[in-house]
Amino acid sequence: MSNLKLENVTDYASAKAFIGNRDRAKLGHNTYLYRGKKADFFYVEYHGNLIVRYQPTVTYATNSGWHTRTTTNRLNKLTNMSFRIRQGVHQYFNKTTGDWLDLMCNDGAHDFNIHEGVA
After folding, report:
1. pTM summary value
2. Is residue 30 part of a domain?
3. Which domain covers residue 16, as residue numbers?
């Protein structure tokens, strides 16, 4: 079990409420929430790597090439999605259907982007 402590930010509305008028807010150890400069979105960086992007109707997540349990734990805490490492391969577990889905890779090896609509 993870002892990871992060602020309760999991979607666009909670990110907007948490950041307020600031351009940057600390969520936890080496984890920061930023306001998008030119568009209406917020994003989270972990050790300087983008891992989550909150838009008004959708949330995007990426592991930025870091296939680690700590990155996976942050993705689980910062989204309403559930990520797990399965035999060394990252997969997305759809909580509604109970299905494991392969992640769509941008470069075929490292980066994944998936999204879940925000009600």
Report:
1. 0.74
2. yes
3. 12-117
